[in-house]
Amino acid sequence: MSEEIRKIIAEHGRLSVDVAGLAPDADLYHAGMTSHASVNVMLALEDHFDIEFPDRMLKRSVFESISAIAAALAELQTEAVA
Amino acid sequence: MSIAVDRDQSFLNTVRVIAEEVAAPNADTVDCDARFPAETIAALREKQALSAFIPTELGGDGVSFEALASACFELGQRCGASAMVFAMHQIQVATIVRHLDDAPWFEGYLRDVAAEQRLIASVTSEVGTGGDMGRSIASVEPAGDGLGRFEKQAPTVSYGAHADDLLTTLRRSPEAEPGDQVCVLTRKDQHTLEPTSSWDPLGMRGTCSPGNVVRAELPLEQILPTQFARVMNESMVPISHILWSHLWLGIATDAFSRARTFVRAAAKRKPGEPLPAAIRLSELMSELSLLRAEVSSGLREFVDASAEDRARLSEMAMILRFNNLKIATSEQAPRVCQGALGVCGIMGFKNDTPFSVGRHLRDTMSACLMVANERIHQTNASLLLIAKDV
Q: Which end of chain A is more exposed for a tag (fewer CB within 10 A), N or C?
């Protein structure tokens, strides 16, 4: 999942650094992702994983790192299965 | 009555008296001369009102946030500029109070604000960021020996020359991205302000807000440790929008009240005769009630969210909520003032009658520029693409 997330961030996150070199817990906003770019990342994630982020997840902290995004996606996918 | 309610009541009574007896009689010269409302701020200082929101254990009065909002409304009815200076100071105080985690220096600082009634101004806007408070160009540069320094080009600094201290947003370090920001507090003896423009605006003239280059050197402990993105979403932005909207409501309420006095006087002069202005007044009342409803529901939702789980304020649906409060009230307040002008006619248009509403109209016209509505719409447009239940 992490690789797919990285690909989406590379495409939509408009980071000022190469996403390949980022640690899973590196702060994406500190790496140059703007709030506007983060919305595009969210839209692309929803589209790619066929999920919808509920409002409680739509905040900066949920999208601030690759591992945080992976955790949110895992939570949603578990919910979908349950 | 509980102690807390008592405290709020006594604070509000004090502010009401100052609004009536000090702010109101000086409002016209403050406006006319574009001068700082020094008398009002001195009176507020004397009654310890600048530290009203600081918790009692840090030397303040510990009044509720609702009381603070009501105080902005009261002052707004008598002098928009006094209310704005008071509101902007309280925004900085409330922001610091809500983000004291791991910030021992700031606890001591709040004690000083209470003891010395220090007035805080803010330097959040910056030339070149397109009005986006969430990005900075200037940064904290290391200056050795635990010191940092900065130089920031600010297009407006409200009452900067009259403030004791400044709260400035900056990039965390020279290497940091524009969105990686912190807030920095500097005292008057640690910063200099070099005015870069004059101040002769249409309204809110007493806020004295010319552009400035701000330069400072400060100990690094004067940087608020919490990331500014959090401070901004959980406190600074919603609190600004709530306190501003309360004072805009205050100004609009006074304009309405002048229109009402005008209509009553006309009705007494010609009892029983048809009075077209009375119908216009009735129409105006519904406009005012829309404004009042939005202001009070915004306050309620903020207080509830703060009590329940403050982190919720960072959710996009909440950001949209408080952005909307600002957009809606900043457009509605001048609409009410213009409606009052329509009721009073030439008597409202003239600057020296009991029904004058020119100052009210001009002051509220600044509302859509304080963080430009266009800029907020841009943010909202983006958030609306992804937020669900708004």
A: C
Would the pLDDT of A81 be above 80? no
Q: Are A39 and B386 in contact (CB under 8 A)?
A: yes
Which residues from chain A sit within 8 angstroms of residue B134, using beta carbons?
Answer: 35
The pair phi, psi for residue B163, each rounded to 5°, is -90, 155
Q: Which amino acid is located at B92 in the chain?
A: Q
Q: Residue B52: its pLDDT value, please? A: 98
Tokens 């905040």 -> residue: A59
Please determine, for residue B170, whether its predicted confidence score (pLDDT) is greater than 90: yes
- The residues near B132 (Cβ < 8 Å, ≥ 6 apart) are B375
Comparing alpha-carbon positions, the chain B residue that sits nearest to A33 is B179
Question: And the tokens for B270?
Answer: 């010609």
Q: Which residue has the higher pLDDT, B81 or B389?
A: B81
User: What ipTM did this prediction achieve?
Assistant: 0.90
Query: How far is B63 from chain A, CA to nearest CA, in Å?
Result: 30
DSSP, residue by residue, A25-81: TS-TTTTT--HHHHHHHHHHHHHHHT----GGG-SGGGGSSHHHHHHHHHHHHHHHH
pTM of the predicted protein model? 0.96
Q: HSE (CB half, 13 Å, CA atoms) of B153?
A: 8
CATH class entry, domain B228-384: mainly alpha
Q: Tell me: the pLDDT tens digits for B236-261?
A: 999 999 999 999 999 999 999 999 99
Q: Which of A16, A52, A59 sits opposite B314 (nearest CB)?
A: A59
* Domain extents in chain B: 3-118, 121-222, 228-384
Residue B389: band (very low, low, confident or very high) from pLDDT cuts 50, 70, 90: confident
Q: Which CATH architecture has domain B121-222?
A: Beta Barrel (2.40)
Number of inter-chain CB pairs under 8 A, A vs B:
59
- Quickly name the fold that domain A2-81 has: 1.10.1200
What is the predicted pLDDT for the residue at B1?
Answer: 54
Q: Residue B166 forms beta bridges with which residues? A: B121, B186
Identify all chain B residues contacting A27, using CB atoms and an 8 Å cutoff.
Answer: 180
Domain B3-118, what architecture? Orthogonal Bundle (1.10)
Nearest-Cα distance to chain B for A3, in Å, is: 23
Q: Where are the domains of chain A?
A: 2-81
Cα–Cα–Cα angle for B41, B42, B47, rounded to 5 degrees: 95
Assigned token pair, B96: 């610091």
